[in-house]
Records
---
Amino acid sequence: MTRPGPGTHPRHGLDEVIHAPVRFSVMAALAAADKAEFAFVRDTVEVSDSVLSRQVATLEKAGYVAVTKGYVGKRPRTWLALTADGRTAFAAHCDALRAIAGGDVADG
Amino acid sequence: MSEYAAKDASDALARARELGSSVRGSGRWYVRYQVIFGCAAALCVLAIGLLHHPYGVALGTGFWVVVIAGLSVYSARQRVVGRGFALRHGGLIATWGVLNGAVLAGGVTWFPGVAAWWVPGAVAVALPGLVGGFLAARR
């Protein structure tokens, strides 16, 4: 059996922006919906407002998440949604995870 | 990126599945929306077709306005909009619109007060909501 050369291990397919645990959870939650309210994502991912704000700002800067603000009655609401690029990147990241989990290539 | 073991990858994928499932569960409000929409559409058609004019039209239309207002408030208060919502909702409204128009136009023109037309017609206008709700519940 030959070991793969540098750069061929599936871990190289992992997206460093998505890889961080909270950002990965945010992406996973948003991947299952067209859009979700900020407070819902916060509760689902189990982080504070400030942590989620920071992580969402990073994902937004990478072009993976779109943030829209609006009102329901007088109550302000912030909606989060994956962009088309975000969906593609998350799918590729999950493919890489599956390849690693499948153990097609020795880890390390 | 540092060492990343198969176990870590499996755990991450499991977490993603768990979160996805939780989010999809919160999007199931649209099942209730569609079922209520379908039942209300049927009752509206029955009222318009089978009750005496003008009470049937007034009652059916008034009931429909109240139900749609309630459903609009209900949907606006939801925290999650499920995948493909715009397409599904557009399909629901378009299908209901065509069926409702056909049942009302045909019934008012040729079958006023004829239960043999209005009862199957009510079932037909209920179908987009009921079938949509059934399919959404199975997803």
---
Amino acid sequence: MKRNVRWMHVLTGAVVIVLLLGVCAWAGGDGDVAAQMAEAAGQGSSMPWWGWPIILLFFCFILGIIAVLAGVGGGVLYVPLVSGFFPFHLDFVRGAGLMVALAGALAAGPGLLKRNFASLRLALPVALIASSCAIVGAFLGMALPTNIVQLCLGGTIMFIAILLLVSKNTAHPEVKKQDALGLALGINGAYHDPSNGQLVEWKTHRTLPGLLMFIIIGVMAGMFGLGAGWANVPVLNLMMGAPLKVAVGTSKFLLSITDTSAAWVYLNKGCVIPLMAIPSVIGLMLGSFVGVRLLAKAKPAFIRYMVIGVLLFAGGKALLKGLGI
Amino acid sequence: MSEQNKGMAAPEQITYSNFLFYGCWSGLALMIVTYLIYVLGFMGPHVSMSEVVRLWSQPVHEYLTQGHAPTGWDWVYLLGKGDFLNFLGIALLAGLTILCYIPLIPAYLKKKDPIFAILALAEILVLLVAASGIVGGGGH
């Protein structure tokens, strides 16, 4: 047990050091670690071609651990950090980011659905809106100039960081009366809470405004190649009144549908390069697997604040890049 | 009281979950195998490694034109090449949700729940449109 705790501290320390070193390198180089890397990679660098996939695999493995400990999806960390640290163009980073978010959501789906933490009745109407809008977002992202997308990405990432800092989700929101739309669609359910063994019944309210919010969420998910768990959870929980466990579970499951539509757009446009996308997916999946095991023992508050700090920094950097500063 | 309100997942939800479980892990296994075939050089790539490394810092249209890389479903014609063989696993993961949705339609119709059967059908159509590449095409 003591050994486990010590191992966990060492691992968490390593994660912190790697991330901080990366951020320092990124900050210190006037942003141009990526440019230097690109130059090195492109023009006769001593780095062999297999160097980048291996670095990416380890980087994404650590990202996967951090993402689970901080309670965020992989895509939201992957896109700003990989587009900053690595020599890849934003087009390919967004394509790979969607594959990363999609793979994570697909892998989590079966367990969530079987335990009733994800509800098909809640997910189906929401998914139809979000996935249609994700296609529109993906086209917008591909059509707009890179600096504009970078600017919007920066703003969004900073907004997510602030949202993570201030949002206080409610475990069991009070829904006195279900609204007509929620009732007509039969959006309700129940799950066994393993922490107290009780059956928790739930239903939704404010269903229409909640569904309309997914227009914006879908467009943003497609445009930036992010999963949109950071936005799904507050809407499902705070606005529509789903219990936090159902909101988190359904949000994760929803990503598997929303990101599918956007992923196809990027795939069809040639934005998925297997040499970099596949190590990203595998690294993040393995990291998430280790992260879930650490989660039981970890006190992730520090990691969470660190991630908020990194997101603020990454968002600021993307904003400056978009402004050409 | 329905299964859902007793805390148990509805039968169609269990079916979806089973499809997802087997499809997801098959896709990941396929990805690992095809990636190893590619990077270990068992099958030559369409875009050479040095070209990929040179072009991945450029916008996608540079990669497409200089690397002669395909868009849409044209990668299917290049499955004999190591790099595009990887698209099998990627396409399986990206297409899995469509496969999972198909059994939902008869399940909801059987439950006399036509609204959800229509929602499932509409979602399949949306995802098929996205997958088909009908809307848009080519790099920007």
